[in-house]
Design goal:
The structure holds two protein chains of two kinds. By secondary structure, chain A is of the alpha+beta class. Chain A has helices at residues 8-14, 39-46, 91-94, 101-108, 118-131, 137-144, 154-166, and strands at 2-3, 18-24, 27-33, 65-68, 71-74, 87-89. Chain A has a five-stranded mixed sheet, with helices on both faces. In chain A, helix 4 packs across helix 7 (154-166). Chain A is elongated and about 45 Å long. Helices cover 26% and strands 25% of the residues of chain B. In chain B, the strands form nine sheets. In chain B, strands 3-7-1-14-11-12-13 form a seven-stranded mixed sheet. In chain B, strands 9-17-16-15-10 form a five-stranded mixed sheet. In chain B, helix 9 packs parallel to helix 10 (369-387), helix 10 packs across helix 11 and helix 13 (482-494) packs parallel to helix 14 (525-549). The longest helix of chain B has 25 residues, at 525-549. Chain B is globular. The two termini of chain B are 47 Å apart. The chains are: A alpha+beta, B alpha+beta. The interface between A and B is large, with 65 and 77 residues. Strand 1 (2-3) of chain A pairs antiparallel with strand 8 of chain B.
């Protein structure tokens, strides 16, 4: 029995880069990326924005959550090409003027353990509070259920978001 | 043992925010895959889609011919005979040699100029292989004519090397025959506990670089940098001083990032290519790198009619996988507490570590104790139900009091805490005994785990002229917040502001030795070493101050943060500056915490402390679907002293919720070729926000009775030990039938409900599906 997993010529054709113009955190970038590269890998590997984290790469864990034209997306499920001409906001963009009140609440509530899921959690919580500034615990759990935390800091994260919901300040 | 005093300005005991937390919420914390390495080459592996095979040929020509591929390495390209490594057993080859022993074991490694190229090239390596009749579960591994996972030549001189049993552990005390005669009731059940995987949100990886001096530098988010240094030094044939391990903070460890796996290979690739070689793992690859051992436990327990346990017998088979890793120790240490924290006159525990052609299992929060606790706690409840004694009373009657032995024989272990307090607190918090609604049930269970049985942590602390301080402490901060605690200790002992303290860790070139970050040991071991170093500095400040000022040192009293001069307190940092004078300079303190093993002890030594937890659960079962709704989840830990209540609650809740994984949903499944069927996040579920109980309560008992700084104990695993037992008892009480297999999926519960007798009499039900 033998295995032959791929054909080298096909694989290499797929690697031919394409030029993409994308706005990330208000800054215009032009970068050449292979057509199969995800927005997640584009952000991390081509633009050096490593605050967006990579775990499952299947759209299940939420670690790579960013805003695409203001809509929350898993950046592992979006191709870099698809983001061309669009506006991306990452955790670096959210934190540009220092920590937001929401981020401060994450710290105060003890919501941060290993921390890898936290940028995605913050993005998802930001999205929730923009839509529902007075979210209660049940609404928070439902809205956040696409973001996994293996340290299981879920109760602390809910507490952080609840606290932020009580003293909401406008974030651009 | 001194409790934390009540001074309001003390950092220890307060909710000090996590060190490194701001970087984590801002996305600026650099985990391994976030660190840029200039001119790095990229590594990818070739694997085959079966769990057990003989490799007959490998053709690397097509891969090697691709432009940008630096090298394609197979076993025959590495020094022969193939080097093997491990802790207790040197059985793991640097790269698969002759056979593939589990699904995902790398057969070839490609180094290329980009990650995409490396992946593409690894996929065109052609591997010819003959599939072997691998053993993927206990029954297959223990069959008389079973395929041997390890060739006997890998275990020369081992009496068991013609079997798949790698090691055994046997514990016994008391007169079993006499105890049999005293039993009014004997309960027998066979329990299963699933294989589960760590699923760290940071999958991790390895980056290795050739050093200027012939050595090597390895970056790995590892829990045990000093163990990795030793093993890499052995593989590359260099002294420790030329092997530098840099360990960025692991993005979740849970025991899965303790032992070396691909680091030896990456070190050899770096030396071969004279390039920095970078490997970043996918989540799927971590499923093939780390998991908890599954377990089957046959238990037989005798009770008096009043609920007292008179004997307990347990045969526990741990499914450990293809290589030893630390699994024999998991089996030995877990089964050691197989009879639980109870007063049982006669006990017999026989445990085996059984090799299978599956991912090598390793440490995972709880270290073997959750497996045996699932059986023992369930047995206690099965006996209680038959006798009409509830879960709480069963534990009240059997749980040992402080100072009382629960493990007997030559090396007995005694309760080192007031464990009944945790039990009573949990019962009170859940409202035990209050009326309960339809389809609802409550359960309470306890768990115990031995802490480290030997250890060595060394620390250096520098008090600088300007009143700032640096501590060097080799504990890996993987989410537990170790560095926060060291800051708190320095702040109090030296009187230095928290924001003027830097903690250095994760670099064997700079930081003194620490045995490992495991077994919830760091607070007790490294915490004591840091405290010791601070006290060393205090003594040095006192002595130099006396010398510099002409005062008599014996007249200078020193307390945390101050020295007392002529009856007046003076901040230690001021005294230090005065003592150092115009030459400036600094004070350097050294601290050590060493626990030696005990010769002949079955664990190699007495545990430094025991982690004890009590969990109480209330569930509601949907009678239509069998789904479990967690109404209330109470966890109470016996923590000694909370050094940082924010971190205690984070660790306790985290362990408790993680325990819901193997209890309710998680299990790694294999097909007939030994392939993992649910490889990845799409098919392998872990707890989410929506799986947490509607009401979750984490509480602690503090008696300041631990061996760590200020009476602390390790606390990071306790709440996971007894989750399954408590949920299992609650489900049984809700549906009227006991389920002996985990996870308690809706399907399993619904099926058991269909078999349940209409009356409220209790019976055991075994799922016919093999797990």
């Amino acid at each position: 029995m033998s295995q032959r997993n791929g054909d080298s010529s096909t694989m290499l054709d797929q690697l031919a880069p394409v030029e993409v113009a994308v706005t990330v955190n208000g800054v215009d970038h032009t970068t050449a990326i292979p057509p199969h590269r995800t927005l997640l890998d584009t952000l991390r590997d081509d633009l050096g924005l490593t605050g967006t984290k990579k775990c499952c790469a299947d759209g299940e864990c939420g670690a790579c959550t960013v805003f695409l034209d203001g809509t929350l997306v898993n950046s592992c499920l979006v191709l870099g090409l698809e983001a061309a001409g669009h506006d991306v906001t990452t955790i670096e963009g959210l934190s540009m003027d220092g920590l937001t009140a929401l981020q401060e609440e994450f710290l105060a509530a003890g919501a941060v353990q290993c921390g890898v899921c936290i940028p995605g959690q913050v993005m998802a919580a930001e999205d929730l509070l923009r839509a529902n500034p007075a979210a209660d615990a049940t609404e928070i759990r439902e809205a956040m259920s696409g973001n996994l935390c293996r340290c299981a800091g879920y109760e602390r994260i809910v507490a952080a978001i609840q606290a932020a919901a009580g003293q909401r300040v406008e974030i651009r | 043992m001194t409790a934390v005093d009540a001074r309001p300005d003390r950092a220890v005991g307060g909710p000090v925010v996590r060190d490194g937390g701001a970087d984590r919420v801002a996305g600026t914390q650099r985990y391994l895959s976030d660190i840029p390495f200039v001119d790095a080459a990229h590594v990818a592996f070739t694997t085959i889609p079966v769990g057990c095979a003989e490799i007959t040929a490998i053709d690397t020509a097509a891969a090697a011919a691709l432009p940008g591929v630096l090298t394609v390495v197979t076993a025959s390209d590495l020094p022969q005979p193939m080097k093997r490594f491990g802790i207790s057993h040197k059985d793991r080859p640097v790269l698969a040699s002759g056979t593939v022993n589990f699904h995902g074991e790398p057969v070839a490694a490609v180094v290329a100029e980009s990650a995409d190229l490396a992946r593409a090239a690894a996929d065109v390596v052609v591997v010819e292989y003959r599939e072997l009749p691998g053993v993927y579960d206990l029954d297959a591994a223990l069959a008389a004519d079973a395929h041997l996972v390890q060739d006997p030549s890998v275990r020369p001189g081992d009496a068991l090397n013609a079997t798949n049993v790698l090691e055994t552990a046997d514990y016994a005390w008391g007169e079993m025959d006499a105890a049999e005669g005293q039993a009014d009731l004997v309960v027998e059940n066979t329990y299963t506990f699933p294989m589960v995987t760590h699923f760290p949100i940071e999958p991790g990886g390895v980056v290795a670089s050739p050093g200027d001096d012939g050595g090597v530098e390895v970056h790995s988010p590892v829990q045990h940098p000093y163990l990795l240094q030793r093993i890499v030094a052995d593989i590359v044939g260099q002294p420790l001083a030329r092997v530098r391990i840099v360990a960025p903070d692991p993005g979740g460890g849970f025991g899965g990032k303790q032992t070396p796996r691909y680091e030896p290979l990456l070190a050899l690739l770096a030396l071969r290519t004279k390039r920095t070689c970078r490997l970043v793992l996918s989540l799927e690859e971590t499923f093939q790198l780390m998991r908890r051992s599954g377990c089957r436990i046959a238990a037989r327990t005798g009770f008096r009619s009043t609920g007292e346990v008179v004997f307990h017998q347990m045969a526990a088979d741990f499914v450990i996988g293809a290589y030893a890793d630390v699994a024999p120790r998991v089996m030995t240490k877990g089964s050691y507490v197989g009879a639980g924290p109870y007063r049982i006159p006669a006990v017999q525990v026989n445990a085996r570590a059984v090799l299978t052609n599956t991912t090598p299992s390793c440490a995972f929060r709880g270290f073997g104790a959750p497996q045996v606790a699932w059986a023992t706690e369930s047995q206690l409840d099965a006996g209680g139900r038959a006798l009409g004694v509830d879960s709480l009373d069963m534990r009240r009657r059997n749980l040992v009091q402080a100072g009382e032995p629960f493990i007997r024989g030559d090396h007995e272990a005694r309760a080192d805490g007031q464990w009944h307090q945790s039990l009573e607190r949990a019962a009170e918090l859940i409202g035990w005994g209050e009326p309960i609604g339809p389809n609802r049930g409550r359960g309470v269970a306890v768990g115990i785990k031995p802490g480290a049985t030997s250890g060595l942590s060394q620390s250096l602390v520098r008090l600088l002229y300007d009143g700032s301080a640096i501590a060097y402490a080799g504990t890996s901060d993987m989410g537990q917040g170790a560095r926060t605690l060291w800051k708190q200790i320095l702040a109090d002992e030296l009187g230095v502001d928290l924001d003027k303290i830097t903690i250095v860790s994760g670099d064997t070139d700079a930081v003194p030795f620490d045995l490992q970050t495991s077994a919830s040991r760091s607070t007790v071991f490294m915490g004591s070493a840091v405290l010791d170093a601070c006290r060393d500095i205090r003594a040095r400040v006192r002595d130099l101050y006396a010398e510099a000022t002409g005062a008599d040192a014996v007249d200078l009293d020193h307390a945390p943060g101050v020295i007392v001069v002529g009856g007046t307190e003076m901040p230690l940092v001021d005294a230090a500056q005065a003592a150092l004078g115009s030459l400036r300079g600094e004070f350097v303190g050294q601290g050590t915490c060493r626990l030696r093993g005990v010769s002949g002890h079955p664990l190699g030594g007495d545990a430094a402390f025991y982690e004890f937890n009590c969990t109480a659960i209330e569930v509601e079962i949907d009678p239509e679907t069998g789904e479990v709704l967690l109404a209330t989840h109470v966890t109470v830990g016996d923590v000694g002293t909370e050094l940082n209540p924010l971190q205690v609650v984070s660790q306790d809740e985290g362990a408790a919720i993680m325990g819901l994984g193997h209890t309710l949903m998680e299990q790694v499944l294999h097909d007939e070729h030994g392939r993992i069927r649910n490889l990845g996040a799409l098919d392998y579920r872990i707890p989410t926000f929506n799986d947490v109980a509607l009401q979750m309560v984490s509480d602690s008992v503090e008696n300041h009775d631990g061996p760590g700084p200020y009476g602390s104990k390790g606390i990071s695993e306790g709440a996971l030990l007894c989750t399954a037992g408590a949920v299992g008892a609650a489900v049984t009480n809700a549906i009227g039938v006991q389920i002996v297999e985990l996870p308690l999926t809706a399907e399993r519960i619904w099926t058991a409900m269909q078999d349940a007798p209409a009356s409220a009499s209790w019976s055991s039900s075994s799922d016919p599906e093999p797990s």
